[in-house]
Amino acid sequence: MPKFYNSISAHLADWALRQPVFFTASAPLTGRHVNISPKGLPAATLKILSPNSVAYIDATGSGSETIAHIYENGRVTLMFCSFGAVPRIMRFFCTGRVVEWDQPEFETLLERMGKKRPLSARAVILLDVFKVQTSCGYGVPRISSNISGDVGKTPEMAFEDRETIDHWGADKVEKNELLSYQEKNNAHSLDGLTGLRTARRGTGERLWLGDIQARVKRILAPKESVIVGMFAGVMFVLLLQLMAGAVKKYWY
Length: 252
Known about the structure:
alpha+beta, Pnp Oxidase, Chain A, 10 strands
């Protein structure tokens, strides 16, 4: 069952910094690509500055998707997950800004983070965390207790599936609770977008009506485009009126 928080508590901050890797996810307002990037060891590259503020050092890479998306719309999510015995997934839903290596604030942020400047660093990503989510992580593999062979050649041998997810699913099915769980948690996204159709149907939603509402929402979502279009329309009408006035004055 997911849990939501308005800020990062001390014990969640400690847990995040003990994980071996974290991931960033971002997307443009338009376009086909959604970006997901694995980042470095949290303890080495990331700092939780306050319950609602996080910064991480961004190293030079083969692309700059996260930076580009933050410049465009500011949206980014950080994800941590446990590969140890105790499963957990944690997400920080954020808005962010980019502080590039040649900006005066860059060195100040590094000092505040208590980090040395890596030679490959191109920016510090400063994030405002507006929501924290934790969930079970039953589907994430764990480090195997029976590692054998050359892990360097066969790294997949270092991991094994957890039995927890199957046990959880079997328990829900036995109690006839799986569908009700889906109806509660899978019918819509955090932003209210339509989700699993069978779950929506189970809640009594009229799918055709929900789909129409979702389509209208998508059309109206780009508020900036609507505002710019209205402004352009008003300016065009005013221009036509001015031109008509000039023509009328010329002929009469």
